[in-house]
Amino acid sequence: MDNSTFEERKTIAGSMHSNLRHDSAHKHVSGTADYIDDIPEPAGTLHGALGMTDRAHAQIVAMDLSDVEATHGVICVLTAKDMPHSNDISPSHLDDEPVLADGLVQFHGQPAFAVIAETRDIARRAARKAKITYRDLPHHTDILDALENGAEVVTKPLTLSRGDAEAELELSPRRLTGRMRIGGQEHFYLESHIAMAIPGEDDDITVWSSTQHPSEVQHMVGHVLGVPSNAVTVQVRRMGGGFGGKETQGNQFAALAAVAAKKLKRAVKFRPDRDEDMTATGKRHDFLVDYDVGFDDDGRIHAVKANYAARCGYSSDLSGPVTDRALFHADSSYFYPHVKLTSQPLKTHTVSNTAYRGFGGPQGMVGGERIIEEIAYTLGKDPLEIRKLNFYGEKGSGRDLTPYHQQVEDNIIQRIVAELEESADYQARRKAVVEFNTTSRIIRKGIALTPVKFGISFTMTAFNQAGALVHVYQDGSIHLNHGGTEMGQGLYTKVAQVLADSFQVDITNVKITATTTGKVPNTSATAASSGSDLNGMAAHDAARQIKERLVEFAAERWQTDAGNITFVPNHVKIGDELVPFPDFIKQAYFARVQLSAAGFYKTPKIHWDRNTGRGTPFYYFAYGASVSEVSIDTLTGEYMVDRVDVLHDVGKSLNPAIDIGQVEGAFVQGMGWLTTEELWWDAKGRLRTHAPSTYKIPLASDRPKIFNVKLAEWAENAEMTIGRSKAVGEPPFMLPISVLEALSMAVASVADYRECPRLDAPATPERVLMAVERLRTGKA
Amino acid sequence: MTQSAGSIRFILNDREIALASLSPTATLLDFLRLEKRLTGTKEGCAEGDCGACTVLVGRLSSEQLVYESVNACIRFTGSLNATHVVTVEHLAAKDGTLHPVQQAMVDYHGSQCGFCTPGFVMSLYGLWLSKDNPGRADIEKALQGNLCRCTGYEPIVKAAEAVAQARPDAVFDPIVKVRDDIIAKLSAIRSTQTIRIDSDDASLIIPGTVTDLTDALADHPQATIVAGSTDVGLWVTKQMRALNPVIFINGLEDLQFIREMDGGILIGAGVSYSTAFSAISARYPAFGRMLDRLGGEQVRNMGTIGGNVANGSPIGDTPPPLIALGASVNLRSKAGARTVPLEAYFIEYGRQDRKPGEFVESIFVPDLPSDDHFAVYKISKRRDEDISALCGAFRIALDSDNTVRSARIAFGGMAGTPKRASNVEAALSGKPWTEETVKAAQTAFDMDYQPLTDWRATAEYRILTAKNLLLRFFLETSGQKAELVRFEVTA
User: Fold this and answer.
1) A with B: how many residue pairs have Cβ under 8 Å apart?
2) Mind listing the pLDDT tens digit for each residue in A507-537?
3) Cβ within 8 Å of A, B 89-118
4) A572, B59, B137, B486: which is deepest, by most CB within 10 A?
5) Does the ipTM surpass 0.95?
6) How far apart are CA B376 and CA B380, in angstroms?
7) Residue B465 exposure: Cα atoms within 13 Å on the Cβ side
8) Which of helix, strand or coil describes residue A399?
9) Is B129's Cβ below 8 Å from some Cβ in A?
C-alpha cells in the first residue's frame, strides 16, 4: 500500500477530499448526457415489447398469438421455446426465474411472450392482441396470506443466535411482544429499464444495458444464448438511477433483446413503459416482524427474539442475502445480550422482490427501533434514553458483540448521537413539543432522534473484489475504466479523483469511460455501497503499478535514487528538476515503459459462515443519526416534516459535496418509503400502484422544511480504505426512521404517551389517522 | 364550416416547423426524440406525472407572449399550432456557455443521475422567465410536477433561489432576445381558419371559431374533444386507444375568456387552471389554495376546468367546490345552447348530461356572499400532485343568531360522481352552528356516501375523514387553527 496517497494535497484540481461537481453535471443540465435511449440507433433497429399475462397464478392452457403476429410491422414473436439455450435467468442459480413464463404464470403481469416490431409503438399495441387461456390457481400476494396458506420459502432461511434468548426472556423483569408491518418500495429510477443489443460476427453480441451489474448481464445473455462469456460484451456509460433496481432486473430485457438481435441479425431495443417496468420488475421486500423482548425497569434490553417474514415474490432472486441483511441489522445500534433472529423468505404470487438501497438492512433496523419505542412507551421514557442505555459499547467493553458474532471495533455512535443531540437542541425542542401538544387540539407534534449503524461489504465474500484499467497516453492524458457503474452517485467522479490524486495531475486530464465487460472482467454489481471502496482502490492499484514503473525509469534515466522522485502537481520532481507530466510521460514512452495497468483490489479481513451464523461479514460500519420533528393533523392524518438535522459519518470524505448529496437524497428517499410510498395489490393480485399517478414518491414540497445535513468532519475510517473514506450509498437511507418515530410520537400524544402507537410503515395519512383513532378509542 | 386542409405550424427552438401530415395522437415527446433527435427531453412516465419531458410552450395570450412548462409526453403535436416550443437544447449559448439556470444547477450539485435534470431545468427556466424573486413556496409550486429520486430536492431548490437574482434582461437569454420576432411569427401563423389534417388512420380538426367547432361536432358527434390532453393523453400513451377524429380546442380563442358577469364569473371551457387561478383565488380564496395542489405546474398549464368538468371523473378536484358554489355548465351544439346546474350534469359513474354533438362552452360560477363561510379540503396520500382520496367543499351561511341558514356540501371521491351531502346539509340547516350540531350531523355522512376502498384510501378512512373535515370546517369558522400549512400565504 502506498500510503503517500493518503496525504492531503490541495494544489491539483480535483484531488481526493475536494468538493468536485459531478463529472457529467454540465451534460445533465444541457440534455447532452446520453442515456441508452439517446444513443443513435443502428440502421434497421427493431423494438421489443413485453407480452404480459393477467393472472396472479395460473396455468396457461393456450396462447393464441396469431393476431399479434399478423399486426402490420411486427417482425416476430418470442416465447419461452425461442430461447436458444436456456429460459432461465435466476441470479441465485436456483433455476426459478424464467425469461418468459413457460406454461405457468406466477405473478400478475409476468411476461409470457415478447413482440419484436418495426417501432416501439407497433410492438406495444400488438402485444395487447394476444388471446391467452388460463386455468386459475389459488394465489396469495400478502405475507399473512402466505403464512396462513403454508407458503414455501424461496430460499433457505437464516438463524442468528447468541446466548440463550428463550431462557433470558423468561427471566427478564419485563417482557413484551409485538408485530410490525413494513411495506416494500418501488425504486422509481427516473430512467426505466432499457437494453439495446447489436449482433456481431459469429456468436458475438454487444448489449447496451441500463444495469448496475454488467458482468451478470453478460453471463445471463451468454447463458440464454448458449454462448461463452467471451462472445458477449455489455456496456453502460450511465444509468438514470438504479438504487438496486438494476442489479438483477435488467437481465430479462437484455436477454430478450439479445435473443431477438441474434435471431433477426438486426439491432433490437427493449424499453418498457413505466407501468410495465413497475409491474414486471422487483421491488424492496415487505416484512412482517414478530418481536419478543425482555428488559428491565431502566429499559436495558436482556434478550430479543424476532422473526422477519418477507414477501419475496415468486422466485429467489436476491431474497436470500436480502433477508440475511435484514437480520444483520435487526440489532440497529444496540447490544443484545441474548438474541435469536430468524428469517422467513416467503414465496408469494407477486413480482420477485430484489435489491433496494439498504438491501433488507433498513427493514431490519426499523424492526429494531420499534422494539426501542415499545420499551420507552412502556416505561414512560423518552426513546432516546432507552437508546443510549443499549448502544454498543467500546471495543472490549463486553457489549461489543453482534448477533452474528462480529466484534464492533469502530463504534462511534455515542459521539455522533451526543453531538447531534446538542447541535439540534433536542432536549429543549422535545420539551417544547410536549408543551405544544398540551394546548393544541387538532395539530400535534412529534420529535425523535434515531441512530444508524450499517455494515459495509457484500455478505457474499467473493463479491468483494474489483478491477480497473488505466492507460496513460503519450500526451499525458489518462484513460480510466473500472468495473463500477455510474447511476448518479458520483462514483466515476470519485474514482477519477483518486486517479488524479495518485498521479498528481488535474482531474481534467483524466477521461472517464463507459463501463464495459471488455475492459474489466468479472466485476461485482455496483451495490452494497461498495462502489468507491472497491473501484477506488483498484484504480489506485493500477496507478501504483504505472508509477512504480515510471519511478524505476526515472531513477535510471536521471541516475538518482527512487526516493528523490516524487509526483508533484502536474509535474514529476526528480531531485531538483521539475519535469512537466506530459513531457515526462513522453520520455517514458520512448524509453519503452508500459504505460497501462490493470489494477485489482480485494477487501481484507472479512469472512462469513452462513451455516453457523458466525463470522466477520463486514469490513467496517458506517454511522449516523438524525433528529426529525413533524406535525400531524389528527382529523385527517395529514402531516408535515418541519425540521430535520442529520450528522452522518462518511469517514474522511472523498468528495463532501457528493456525499452530502447522497445523504440528503437517501434521507428523502427513505422518508418516502416510510411515509407516502405504498404498494397496493387488489384481490386479483394486481399491483394497482404502478405509475407515478398512483405511487407517490416525495416531491420538493415534501422534503423537510428545515433540512440541516452535516458530515462528521472528524470521522476517519479505522480501516485502510481509499483515503480513509467510508461508503455512503446506503447508510443514510436509514436516517429517516426518525420521521416514522416522530409521527408515532405525535400520534401517541392523543393518549398522553401511555401507549406505543405501533405505527406501521408506510405511515400514510390513513395509517396515521387510524392509529390516532385506535389510541383515542382504546380499541386494539 | 370554413375548410382548409392546412398544416400544423409552430416554432421549435429557432426553427420553423410545418407538418402537413400528422396523426392526431402523435405526441410532442415522440416528435422531439424520434423525428428531431432532440434527446435532451426524456420520457420518465408517459403520463404527465414525473416532468422529465418538460418543455416550454410559448403562446400568444391577449397579444402577450407567455411561456408555460408542459409535459411533452401527453401533449399532442397537433395541439401546437402557432406556438413556440422550447427544449433544453435551446438554453445554452452556441459556444456551450450554460444558461444561468443550468449553471446554478451545476454549481449547487442539483443533478445526480441526471435523467430528471432537463425537466427540472425547464421548469426552473419557466419560473425564472415569469417571476421575479420567487420564494420557497413559489419554487416548490413550480416544481410540483417534477420528480427527482436522487437529490432529495434540497440542492435544486437552492439553485433556484440562487439564480433568482440573475434576471433575464441582465444576461443572454434565448427567448428574451428574440421575443418580438417570435410574437410576429406566431401572429402570422395564427389563424381563425379551421385546420384539418387527415392521415391514414385518423383525422384531426382544429376549429377556428366556436361555430366551426359546433359544425365539426355536428358532423362528427363521436369526436374526441381535446383541450389540455392531461387525461386524454393517457388514453393514448397508457391505454393505446385509437381516437378518430380528434378536435383540438386548446387554441380556440372563442373559449379563452374569463368574463365578469352580474352575480358571478363566466369561465370559458378552454381556460387553463393556471390562467383561471388569479380570478378564482381572488373570489374564492379557498378554491384557489386547492388549485395550487391540483396536478403539477405543467398539468395546470395544460389542463382546463372545462375538461375537468366535461370528462365527469368522480375524483376531479374542481367539481366539489364548483357544486358548493352553485356553478352551472353552459353546453352548446348545433341544436342550440342550454344550461345545466353542475350537480345535475353528473348523472352516474361514467355518464354525464352531455349529448352527442354537444360541448361544454363555459362554466358560470356565482359570487360568494361575503359573509358565507367557504372551504375546500383536498385529502391525498401525498400533499401535492396527487389525485384526491377525497375532496370536500363546504359552504355555509349563518344568520345573525348563529343559526345555519343554508349549507352546501359536496364531495369527490366518495361516490360514483361528485356529489352533494344532502343529508348532512339537512342535519345542519336551521340548527345553531355549534360543535354539538356538527357532531350530530357527522353521522349523516353515512347516509350520503358509501365510498369504495382502493389504492388511494379505504372506505373507512374516506368516511371518517369526511366526517372529520366537517369538524375542521367548524373549527376554522370559529377561528381555531385546524389545518397544516407549509408556508403561510402572503398576499
Assistant:
1) 267
2) 999 999 999 999 999 999 999 999 999 999 9
3) 89, 91-92, 98, 102-103, 105-107, 109-118
4) A572
5) yes
6) 13
7) 31
8) coil
9) no
